[in-house]
Recover the amino acids of this structure.
């Protein structure tokens, strides 16, 4: 059994995301003074007293208006309510009740879920009581005045909320793999998430910038748990103004940082763009495992040579394709979508793999036998004494040598290829640290000097 869910419902710009962040104790949901920032369902863990639950942020509800994203936002809010054990209806205490609040209240009264009425933006406790009185006529019981920004009044709301939250037995820890779905706008990231889940978990639209929050969704396949993180499309930095998109892209970068594996989604019709290359650089900088997903493959006219020509294009444009797995899919039709998780498993396993020092040195010995280190212009040759793995995620190997400057980039790449070939580090970057004997001697001298002092 998973954690109970509490849905946060309300019209646009009443402070739902601010309240979600307050209840969760973290700044995860995007807060910005503009209606319609939240669109998809965003789940965050929270607790009060002895009860743990998930609080789900939803987009602002607007009935009788089918423009832009509003019907899709309603669909997401209704989905959140259908799985919730309780709901918090957030209203604006400054403006007082209006027609939109009354419409939502009438709809909530028809739902089987218990609803608590939170009157937000009551910064003064004394005035808050008077502001809350105006909302009694919504017919949802006692209104709770509070300030989501400052936190006052939220304790009273939570004291009542836990009466509607069931106790949960301790949930066993799952060895889940965190997978960030990353790419430029409109390459099919949300469609891919929906294809995995089998439902409209994220809003899909041809309008660029539809996804704003990083959306976490948990799925399970063959006993393995995955946390799929849909992210906002990442455009060129010069095209981004400060505002909702700025915060969305920061969330996307954080999603890369907290993931185990990144699904880098490429639009097959557009091919590899300059922005895709920059995203590759971001993934490499963060040291994340990666699977390259070429989406919209069903829209490409193909013959028996097409896939080979496309792979050549990828190799030319993306230098890291020698170690990542590539899969050609269609999120729209479901073509090869389920096979992605097999590649994710392989990449995640390689990303956290730890190899013994003896095996590392066997690979080095074999590599040196086939190709000895280069000789510098001064006639001095590089020597590798031994190597050892110092960390994983990504796998990092320290190589102790006589002088790191005697090893050119070509030879360093050769050694890296040998580690990949012999140890199977497919799907993950590996980091090699070339440690000069001179540096080691200086460190030892410093340590000895510090000991004497």
């Amino acid at each position: 059994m998973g954690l109970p869910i509490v849905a946060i419902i309300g019209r646009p710009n009443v402070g739902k995301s601010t309240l979600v962040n307050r209840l969760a104790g973290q700044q995860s949901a995007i807060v910005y003074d503009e209606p319609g920032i939240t669109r998809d369902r965003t789940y965050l863990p929270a607790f009060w007293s002895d009860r743990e639950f998930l609080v789900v942020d939803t987009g602002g509800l607007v009935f009788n208006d089918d423009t832009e994203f509003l019907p899709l936002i309603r669909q997401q809010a209704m989905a959140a309510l259908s799985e919730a054990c309780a709901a918090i209806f957030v209203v604006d205490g400054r403006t007082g009740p209006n027609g939109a609040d009354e419409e939502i209240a009438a709809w909530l009264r028809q739902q089987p879920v218990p609803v608590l009425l939170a009157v937000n933006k009551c910064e003064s406790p004394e005035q808050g009581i008077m502001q809350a009185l105006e909302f009694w006529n919504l017919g949802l019981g006692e209104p709770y005045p509070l300030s989501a920004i400052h936190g006052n009044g939220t304790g009273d709301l939570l004291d009542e909320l836990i009466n509607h939250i069931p106790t949960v037995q301790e949930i066993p820890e799952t060895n889940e793999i965190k997978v960030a779905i990353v790419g430029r706008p409109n390459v099919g990231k949300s469609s891919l998430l929906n294809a995995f889940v089998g439902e409209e978990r994220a809003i899909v639209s041809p309008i660029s910038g539809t996804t704003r929050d990083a959306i976490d969704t948990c799925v399970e396949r063959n006993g393995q748990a995955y946390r799929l993180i849909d992210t906002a499309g990442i455009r060129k930095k010069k095209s981004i103004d400060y505002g909702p998109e700025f915060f969305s892209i920061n969330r996307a970068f954080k999603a890369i940082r907290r993931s185990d594996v990144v699904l880098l989604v490429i639009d097959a019709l557009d091919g590899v763009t300059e922005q895709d290359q920059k995203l590759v650089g971001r993934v490499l900088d963060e040291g994340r495992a990666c699977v390259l997903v070429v989406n919209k493959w069903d829209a490409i006219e193909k013959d028996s040579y097409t896939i080979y020509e496309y792979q050549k294009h990828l190799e030319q444009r993306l230098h890291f394709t020698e170690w990542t797995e590539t899969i050609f899919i269609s999120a729209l039709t479901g073509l090869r979508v389920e096979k992605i998780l097999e590649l994710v498993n392989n990449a995640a396993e390689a990303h956290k793999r730890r190899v013994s020092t003896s095996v590392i040195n066997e690979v080095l010995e074999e590599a040196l036998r086939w190709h000895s280190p280069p000789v510098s212009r001064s006639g001095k040759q590089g020597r590798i004494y031994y190597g050892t793995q110092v960390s994983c995620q990504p796998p990092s190997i320290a190589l102790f040598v006589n002088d790191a400057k005697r090893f050119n980039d070509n030879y360093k790449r050769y050694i890296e290829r040998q580690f990949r070939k012999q140890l199977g580090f497919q799907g993950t970057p590996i980091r090699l640290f070339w440690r000069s004997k001179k540096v080691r001697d200086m460190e030892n001298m410093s340590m000895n000097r510090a000991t004497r002092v």
Summary: The mean pLDDT is 81. The CA atoms of residues 88 and 221 lie 33 Å apart. The first helix runs from residue 16 to 24.
